[in-house]
# Entry
Amino acid sequence: MAEVTLRDVADAAGCSVATVSRVLAGTRPVGAETARAVRAAADRLGYRPNEVARALRSRCTGTVGLVLPQITNPFFPSLVRELEHVLHAEGRAVLLADCDDDPETEAARIAALLSRRVDALLLIPVDERRSRDAVAAAAARVPLVLLDRGCGPGVADSVAVDNAAGMALVLDHLAATGRRRPCFIGAAGTASAAVERRTAYAAGAAGLDPSAPERAVLGDFSVEWGRAAVDRVWPARPDAVICANDLIAAGALQRLRQLGADVPGEVAVTGFDDIPLAGLADPALTTVRQPVAELAAEAARLLARRPAAAPVPGPRRPVRTVRLAPELVVRASSATGGARGERVRPLDRTRSER
# Structure
């Protein structure tokens, strides 16, 4: 079937092509009767605007590139879903790229999206240091917002959960349930979320036990690492295993059960993110819930406030950093006595920006 054109709609409505264009684009006022006739003709003929031609005229493609470290991490699909919803509501489409936790692949994916003339970029950087050059270069060309992780001060606008506050919620809960010998299973490297969570553990756990900061082992954000790490920390018999994300915690729970440990009677286990797996674990996992919908909304807001890069280089607007408050979800993996069951305890503040 031949594509329906503006000329076809104009002939059917009995008006000029320019009038049809004004009605459908909403750029100039047109008489109500004429507008109704144009829209009725367009609907009857099944007219669909040519987005490629529109992009050429406006120099705006209506697309946002989204680059993820690894789509197999269950936290990221939930974030992608929320981002797609909020951007679709603004009339923007999302082009998704996975870089498999590799900074070189990440740089190539960013370049590929820019070559497709995306209007803006959303990025969860692989590594705070090694991602910085590619991110800074892209931020000089299009509006760019970092999600969940950063690339250091001054590089680009960013929105993330307050990781230190989340770890403080975990430590306060464990202290309230009588835990005094925690250990930490985290991720190595310089991804900002990994660094912030292990730094916050070291700072806060010393209040429970001066030697607690030394009880930390680092690997990656995976179930496999959670299982392997338990074999390294369990000989010290900690009474709480604090994990840097829910995947690590799921592996830790599995291995502790294989070793015959009583969770939570003998040892509590906590995670971070509150992915769907957390509520399905056995026992259900106490974790820090990230406000995923709010992360997506704030990212879209920051993109809207960041104008397109000027063709002539000039002074950049100051970057903005938004930190969102997490919630602690207490479940059976750490609850004792009457505290068993799900309980959500929010922080007093919900958002900070600088």
Observations:
- The two ends are 54 Å apart (CA to CA).
- Residues 75-89 form the longest helix (15 residues).
- The chain has 13 helices and 14 strands.
